[in-house]
């Protein structure tokens, strides 16, 4: 998949393309993929959203020049692990495994509490159970995205309890369609993302269960995750202009 690159300065919460030539060591590559409402690009080359806009603003205020690059999520992870350039990826969760090869900014956004998303008609997934009991139920099929973290609490439970799992590389809209087709029973998602997807598609919110669990009571912070080539000093400059979570 071809990567789309936008070189420019960041202004007023949007990317504004600029005809500039910059040395590679002066530019931070921020890799992202369109994922409403977190990051949305337009044909004019602008990028904004719940995670994109705070990053745009902070880099602008820190005086850092940025190349915004549309990159598939699995390739984003490989670029940070490869540590061959000043690469950062937008809106990733922080966990112990990733801290072994990456540097993390302060939080750029805090999700609303995650929910288990299931069809309202699926009575096998109910509010009367615990999250651990749900994950132990091998008659139910959990949908997860390859290479993704669902936050430390869920990640640890998935390793410990080993639910029956279907792993995909598609986006959350594809995952929602798999749920609608009855191919899986449930998946984890932030409410703001699923609400957005339901709102722009021909889906009815009443057709879904949004199941809260005690373990998911607090939203998970999203960060800018960067290769080790990006210095702590630069991240400190960036962090100084972020909102506090």
TrEMBL record:
Q: Where is the Solute-binding protein family 3/N-terminal domain?
A: 33-203
The organism encoding this protein is Reinekea forsetii
What's this protein's family per the entry?
Belongs to the bacterial solute-binding protein 3 family.
Alphabetized, the UniProt keywords read:
Signal
- The positions making up the signal sequence are 1-23
Coiled-coil boundaries: none
| Stated name of the protein | Extracellular solute-binding protein
A single Pfam family it belongs to is: SBP_bac_3
Q: By its UniProt entry, which PANTHER family does this protein fall under?
A: ABC TRANSPORTER SUBSTRATE-BINDING PROTEIN, MEMBRANE-BOUND LYTIC MUREIN TRANSGLYCOSYLASE F
